[in-house]
Amino acid sequence: xxxxxxxxxxxxxxxxxxxxxxxxxxxxxxxxxxxxxxxxxxxxxxxxxxxxxxxxxxxxxxxxxxxxxxxxxxxxxxxxxxxxxxxxxxxxxxxxxxxxxxxxxxxxxxxxxxxxxxxxxxxxxxxxxxxxxxxxxxxxxxxxxxxxxxxxxxxxxxxxxxxxxxxxxxxxx
Length: 173
Description:
Layout (H helix, E strand, L loop, with lengths): L3 H8 L6 H28 L3 H27 L10 H17 L5 H29 L3 H29 L5
Helix pairs in contact: 2-3, 2-4, 2-5, 3-6, 4-5, 5-6
């Protein structure tokens, strides 16, 4: 006999996406936790005050996004457990290499922005898929929470572009 949760999963629209949805949630939860350490390094490595502040602000946002992900897990009746995100691990390793390679260079901030935007684009892709899955399975609360995070990730990407175009990518006399 099926449990109530199993029955609910079978009755939801597009139930075939449920296992994928949960796996992707675990992946992005792990990624966000890994990113917290990376953002501290990026903030410490940045030379411009506006870039340092952007990384510090994103650190605080990421803490909120982790809490939001816990709410998403709760809304679908699943324990909030992350898993190691190999993609984020690779992106953060690349950011570390950039910090070492460009330390003391006038291109350091531009390089850090490049590394950070790769992270943002990974997050945007991940949250975009999660929002779609939540919508298709009619997980309304999860969809709303994930959409909020997706919007924050897009805003961070735009801010990084602005800092790059107005400061980091410019030659100073």
